[in-house]
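Standup, Tuesday
Yesterday: got the pipeline producing structure tokens again.
Today: sanity-check two examples.
Blockers: none.

Example 1:
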Amino acid sequence: MTVFALRNIVNVETLQEIQDRFAEATGLAVVIADEQGIPVTVPSNFTNFCSYIRSSEEGLRRCMLSDERVGIMAAKRGKPAIHRCHSGLVDLAAPIILNDKYLGAVLCGQVLIEDQDKDRLEQIRRNTRNLLVDQELLHQYFGQIEFTGQKRVEAAAEMLYLVANYIVKMGATHLAREELDEKNQKLMEELQIRAQLEKTLQETQLRVLQSQINPHFLFNTLNTISRLAYLENAEQTQSVTYSLAKILRYSLRNIDQLVTLKEELEHVTNYLNIQQSRFRDRIQYEQTLELDVESVKIPILCIQPIIENAIVHGFEPQEGSVKLTLRAFTIGHKVVIEISDNGIGMSEENLVSIFSEKETRGGHTTGIGIKNVHKRIQHCFGPDYGITAINSEMGAGTTVQITIPL
């Protein structure tokens, strides 16, 4: 159920204008109060008598309590109520009810009734004698209070009811507009999500179209090139072609498939064989494995993207050689795969951006990306696994740790 208050559904300046116009038209004192009797607007046309009583702390408390009571009385009846306030003056209240919730009341009055209140001064003195105010001044202000007829009071009550209903309609319109705005906002968000999904689908369809060359044709072609290289004594060409064929065959396996660490590292070796032929002796690679870790399972294509990232972003931009070190060791019931390089390192900003929602890297990478590797490992093994540490220092290199279950 929606929780709302009077001042939140109708602009206070608008309420003030309505109240001022009503006071001008009737000559009566008017104020709009919330459900607790606390004024929402600045009182209009208040008598000096009531203003003076409200100037004392106890007098204000009694007035707000009186306003609260007559407002609730009107709300229970569902129509305007006429009563005597705590000091003895006649007040009117019309309830403001929206969606069966009492939000406040329009209150007016501060008058005395002709033929009823001629001798009320003594009673009013008794009602107000313990207030910390000047009783003589209060008596003087009492003499300024207007006497009016019963019919005028009843007519004012009917008019007050119309005003309260008008405020209710404004509140209902405001709520309807808010609800419409909220639905429009949700619709816009859904349209944006749909547009993004359509864009992603189109990009995926394009990539599928681009990759629709027959794999068997490609492998057969690579094997032919490899045999030709052998016949021509081009051993390095044969080796690179053979490695490329293995990489392509491995990459076409199901991305959700689990492979052994040994298989994944063979794929890394084939990838580095091609890169070493490109950079010759500028790439050094060392690999150290503890016993029994080769058989652990890992999602396919989780290590090679890290190696590629080290070469592309840590080595290609600079001259000189790169040293890559891979260690796999156990800690308790976990296997940690640590990949280190001596490349250019990463700034703090780049480290933070790696796992951000917005992709910041592209071009040379495999398209799988570090973030994707992390998510796929967590999807397979849970939140305690994945890329659990990335340490980098500008000019000194980067170390990435992957953790998987033993």
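Example 2:
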Amino acid sequence: MRIDVSRPSERASISFRPAVAREREPGPRATQRRALDAPACGSWGLAPRARDTLSCALLAVAFYLLLAASAFAQSFPSHPLRMIVPAPPAGITDLSARLVGEGLRAKFGQPVVIENKSGANGLIGLRELLKAEPDGYTLMAGTMGNFVLGYAMEVNAPFDALRDLAPIAGTAEYATAMIVNPKMPVNSVREFIDYAKARPGTLTFGSTGTAALDYLAVELFMKQTGTKLVHVPYRGGPAALNDLMGGSIDVLIEVFPVVMEQIKTGAVKGLAVSSPYRLPSIPQVPTFKEAGVSGVELTGWLGVYGHPQMPDDIHATLGAAIAEIVKQPDITEKFRAIGFEPTGLGMREFSNFHAAEVKRWVAFMTEAGLRK
């Protein structure tokens, strides 16, 4: 055996050949065949055999990564999922998250651990999501108020509603309802307006924060009616409802799922709903438009989000799964029983919807002078 370094073009390669007395120069066909066999490696500056080895290695690595990604997607989920709820227990976000978690557990055979991380209108939950591994195993339930209104109301919002979230699926929508304590001497929106105008700046209303739907609804109501109410913030809708029933605050325009049962049982007085139509579960309560107040028609929505860097295939898998779960008759019935109307938007639909809502509400808040 000997090392052949006789040709300048092959000095970068090392080849082992049997020792012979004389070597023939390769003919035209051999030269052509060798040129065709060599990989087109451009300006790598490597000899044909070294280039061939490197090309094969790169192809092998790419193929291995493709197989690994495919295997990961096919085995997802292989362990329990985690659902962050950026709100207290028993609120609308919590209730919807538990229904989705129940469906995911049945579909995938893996538990879904619900973690309530309330505070700062969803920011604490969002920070928890962004700290997690972007592998699709950590999800977050969210509302229009958390991740659209909050962003739209702040010029220097502490997060980007389009870049810091991966919309996975839309789950449900809901209206709000205006309610008062049963002891308040009013039985209609018109009577409440007169009562409030006779006591400017003394009646109180509760909300879950200045970037929440229940706060925005009252702001619109005051603007449209010329009334002046005093804001009392709460960490969640149920806490505000308890204080209203106890007489600590005077009025709420709260999301309907939180107050539905209390309206039905007479624990509170329902004066109006913000949907464009009367709600089937409380048909005796008029819409704001029917009550003579326009511009307070609001419908909120809920969805599930993931880490913005989650794998695309896992993103699509979860979106399709959750949309399918929400449309199942038993889950649909459970959503409606607590005051929601299921939507079941998949990944692409919900992503487009989320982006359109951000654009719409930024424009609305700017025009209304509420973007600060």
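Quick observation on example 2: Residues 1-44, 68-72 have pLDDT under 50 and may be disordered. Residues 75-172+303-368 form a domain with the D-Maltodextrin-Binding Protein; domain 2 fold (CATH 3.40.190.150).
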